[in-house]
Amino acid sequence: MKCQKCDKPATCHITELTNGTPQELHLCEDHARQYLTAGAEETVAGKGMAAAMAQHMAQQMAQQMAVGQTAEELEKLDQQACPVCGITFYEFRSQGRLGCPNDYLCFQSQLEPLILNIHGESQHAGKSPKGNPGTSHQRTQLIRLRREMKEAVAREEYEKASELRDRIRAIEEDAAP
Amino acid sequence: MELDDLTRYSGEWLRGVGPESDIVISSRIRLARNLADYPFISRASDQDRVHILNDLHESIQDIAQNEEILCVNVEDLGGVDRQFLVERQLISRELAESRGARSVTIGRAENFSLMVNEEDHVRIQVMQSGLDLDTAWERINRIDDQIEQHVTYAFDETLGYLTACPTNVGTGMRVSVMLHLPALVMTRHIEKVFRSLHKISLAVRGLYGEGSQAMGDFYQISNQVTLGRAEEDIIKQVCDVVPVIIGYERQARDFLVREKQENLHDRVARAYGILRNAQTISSEETMHLLSSVRMGINLGLIEDLKIPVINELFIHTQPAHLQKLSGTELDTTDRNIERARYLRTHLSSQGPRESEKN
Ligand SMILES: [Zn+2]
Ligand SMILES: [Zn+2]
Question: Which one of A10, A44, A127, B207 has the largest count of C-beta atoms within 10 Å of its C-beta?
Fold first, then answer.
């Protein structure tokens, strides 16, 4: 048997299981190595891994969302935005990165199946911060307030901006670790 | 401590000591963390990035009380210096190539690095030579606690540490062990090993040299699942599987020694010969030949060369290192000539020629 990518004999037979249905690959040694090492570990080649991951997730979500949903519904879903950082679901889906901690809340229903698919679990087990975890949620609000302040300044609504600044300071002082 | 000081040392993970260090190059753990009051990096403004750096300043000072560190503003570095840090595995390609305020803090012995404003706000990494994940975990856990005293991490009771990519949520931990598996590659058993690891949700990746070639038969095994398992359990899963792979590699080496003694010896001797005599050589070929020589040393086929010397050559012959060591910027052609010269110098002074002279 010939390698699927060149004329050399196929010496490596790889079964790829990651896409649900098993897929047989017949490759020469060089192409097998190339194939198996495609997508590098992040410490060495950050881009490859991240890009591969983002693409993989986009595919997964497209599959999940396509089940029982109309194009209109999908489009509506894509336009849904996080009130804290402003990222839309479409933006997350295309780049594979979330915009802020609050996204785990506001995109919860879409992320839950994805997370379960990646990890096989949905409840954290492991260390937690020693500091007061109650302040974490409060601090998320700082992200929104700072963004609103920046927007207020851009619109030259200085009174509103200074009001926002005072609220930001109050939370910062209150939640200092 | 300055960046250029690093060129004179070879860093923790190249020391070639520690348990099973003939096959296990290094053990590494990284933790991904984000501050609760800033957007993740993809939505962070320039100002946010500067604030994140400032907020972490105290944490970094705290670490500096225990050991000598080097804090580098990556934005200010030239291309060669960035690549140099990537080659030493102290920063990711992502941190090297992105834009905006970002930094890396490096421990004196190069056994830890802390990246700020990479994919997550904080990426802590600890490395140990050989197979020693317990020491790495003990250390990184302590550093994580130290940092957390001065900042508030984004954390959720259900999902754990919140990360920019849902693949890291939970512990935010990636445990990886770098292995040298030339005999499994030669006997073509490597892909079987890969398949069995995928089944238990561990990832295997080749290490990269220039371009996208697997470098010198080095492979990294790491966990993929970060949620729903405690840190110690994730470490145990990797720890349990590594001795099995080491066993396979040893079996493959025994087979080569027993059944293919002449072929093996020939391959090792030729590799050594080319490395000591070439006048121009690519990075790729160098990695390939050094891999054979490294195995040859471990099997007693080459007696006058030490593993740390070879480990160091793997790194010192990479593009940015060659340019740092020679003190000039070199294009590919000149690098290949300089690489061959560097190899001749460092391999001939090591032994055989000298012993022949006597
Ligand atoms: Zn081929
Ligand atoms: Zn958000």
Answer: B207
Let me know if residue A47 belongs to a domain. yes
Give helix B307-316 / helix B319-326 axis angle, nearest 10°. Answer: 90
Is residue A45 a part of any domain in this protein?
yes
B112-141 pLDDT per residue, tens: 999 999 999 999 999 998 899 999 999 999
pTM score: 0.82
Q: Given CB atoms, is A60 within the 8 Å cutoff of chain B?
A: no
Q: Which residue has the higher pLDDT, B355 or A166?
A: A166
> Based on the structure, what is the number of domains in chain A?
3
Say if B9 is an interface residue toward chain A (CB within 8 Å).
no
Residue A16 lies in domain: 12-67
Q: Which residues sit with Cβ closer than 5 angstroms to ligand 1, an ion? A: A 3, 5-6, 8, 28, 31
> End of a domain among A29, A45, A67?
A67
Centre of ligand 1 from the C-alpha of residue A5, in Å: 5
Assembly ipTM: 0.85
Residue A158 lies in a domain: yes
Examine the domain organization and report whether B78 and B94 are in the same domain: yes
Statement to judge: residues B92 and B226 lie in one domain: yes
B23-47 mean pLDDT: 93
Mean pLDDT of chain B: 88
CATH number at residue B74: 3.30.590.10
> Looking at the structure, do residues B289 and B171 belong to the same domain, yes or no?
no
Across A52-61, A115-124, B35-44, B217-226, least confident range: A52-61
User: Is beta strand B155-156 parallel, antiparallel or unpaired with respect to B160-161?
Assistant: antiparallel
Ligand positioned closest to the Cα atom of A4: 1
Residue corresponding to tokens 């990096």: B41
Indicate which of A42, A55, A64, A91 best probes the interface with B, i.e. most B CBs within 10 Å of its own CB: A42
Domain tally for chain B?
Answer: 2
CA distances (Å), origin B45, targets A161, B39, B117, B173: 17, 9, 11, 26
Predicted confidence (pLDDT) per residue in B69-79, tens digit: 889 999 999 99
What residue numbers bound the domain in which B271 lies? 260-354
Q: Any bridge partners for residue A12, and if so which?
A: A27
Q: Which residues contact B204 (CB under 8 A, 6 or more apart)?
A: A36, B193, B194, B197, B198, B219, B220, B221
Phi-psi region of A110 (alpha: psi -120 to 50; beta: other; left: phi over 0): alpha
As a whole number of Å, the end-to-end CA separation of chain B is: 41
